[in-house]
Amino acid sequence: MTGPLPEAVPPVPGAVPPAPQLPRARPQPGAATSAPEGWHRLHPLSPLVRAGRQFVGLVVLLAGLSVANHRQAGSEIVTDVAVIGVALVGGLISWLVTRWQVADGVLRVDTGLIRRESRRFPLSQIQAIDVEQTGLARVLGLAELHLRVAGGDASRGGRLACLRVADAEQLRRLLLAQARSASQAMEAGPGGSAVPVRSGEVALFRVRSGRLAVAITLSRTGAIAVGVIAGLTAIAVAIGVNKATAYFLPAALGVVLAVWRQFNGEYGTTVVTGPDGLRLHTGLVQTTAETIRPGRVQAVRLVEPLIWRAFGWCRLEVDVAGPRMRRENQSEARRLRALIPVGSRAEAERMLAELLSSQPQPDSRPPRSARLKAPLLYHFLAWAGDDRYVVTSHGRVCRKTTWVPLEKVQSIRWVQGPLQRRLGLASVRLDVAGKRVTGAIEDRSAAEAQGLLMRLPDLARDARARER
Question: 15, 173, 277, 381: most buried, per Cβ within 10 A?
Fold first, then answer.
């Protein structure tokens, strides 16, 4: 069921000096909202959440060693307590020297004891603000705010970890309201008018948990997991269960974790549209609430694996500028944003209509000579374009259709391999800032590829001019 989602949340408390009361009336679309003044501190339990698994693992390790060795000496117990105490004191110091403030359209975050660091994030340059919760943060009722700034490195993005969940949501809306007002004022210019925005949020998609589990099982990740587990089971039967457990348990756990990470990351995926763009909420244990503004989408990809096509399922992904980088899971950082992890074609069409102003369909086939180079892929190679997008398709076992906005194109390449030269073929590649997706017009005649290389830069320049 679709419908507007509530926006009112409790006011932001927790400031070092008393924070003024926030207005209770709902702000009008596009109107500036006042952020809490003065310097503020993070939640006192923030060091525990930031340490996360390392701190919990240290406590478990010390407790396990104490039980395993049947320690009785008081000095050894004191040593364990001292190690934990040092970690707690370090976290307390980190919390004491970290503070944040919103003033004059800038979010300022100061931290550091010996080496002080003061970072400033102009609200007019903020692309999005994400709310993330690890498993431990959810237990404690806390959340992190991650700021995505235009032109910024995701690994160095703004971060407030941690606040109470209600406070984080309220602060996010306050900062986005100020950022929207500032950007609209810059775009309007002197005497200009602000760009209108839509009020409220409307649900677009929610993944079905049962369908997601089946889809992962029928995907490449699931196939690899089933194959590895079947192989390990056969080896265990051949050489003995005890020996196999000792040698192959880490490999089995790695496979299970890979499947779990994908399921945990895509579980409960919900997409709503609102004034700030698409709001994406994902996660089972570790949850993430991310806002994808229209200007951040660099490319859109529709993925249709062979087995999924029998059920009418597909996957819709977007390549986003300033990608999230998780140090604890680099493989997840390399994945595209899955707006629809698995859904029907009708759901994908609805999402495409929200993402793209037009949807050209790939219908231009390569020349017959391309059949000699790619006999299995020949019937699936196609492209099309208009004055806004270039769309390409390829793949027999896993069909992929990619839409690239012309205003997002960073470079255009003409590529010709040895076999292509013999057949008089060439390819044209369109690179975007996301660096995860490339629009590839594969195996065209050399003359057509040369013509595309001459025309596409002008089309991209015109598209950028229209978007200004």
Answer: 381
**Bigger pLDDT: 9 vs 373:** 373
Rounded to 5, what percent of the chain is helix, strand, coil?
Answer: 40, 30, 30
- Which of 16 and 180 is assigned the larger pLDDT? 180
Alpha-carbon distances of 231 from 224, 225, 355, 413, rounded to whole Å: 11, 10, 43, 44
Q: Which domains does the chain have, with CATH numbers?
A: 46-191 (2.30.29), 204-354 (no CATH), 370-467 (2.30.29.30)
Closest CA to 42 of 149, 178, 123, 137: 137
Q: From CA 366, how far away is CA 388, in angstroms rounded? A: 22
Hey, how many other C-beta atoms are within 10 angstroms of the C-beta on 339? 27
Answer whether 443's CB lies under 8 Å from 420's CB: yes
Does the pTM exceed 0.85? no
Distance of CA 183 to the CA centre of its chain: 23
Look at residue 79 and give its three-state secondary structure. Answer: helix
Residue type, 263: F
From residue 421, give the alpha-carbon distance in Å to each of 377, 416, 427, 443, 446.
19, 6, 11, 10, 8
Q: Report the C-alpha gap between 262 and 338 in whole angstroms.
A: 11
Structure tokens belonging to residue 222: 């699931």
* 111-155 pLDDT, tens digit each: 887 888 888 888 877 777 888 888 888 888 888 888 877 554 444
**Burial of residue 196, with CB atoms counted within 10 A of its CB: 0-12 exposed, 13-18 middle, 19 or more buried:** exposed
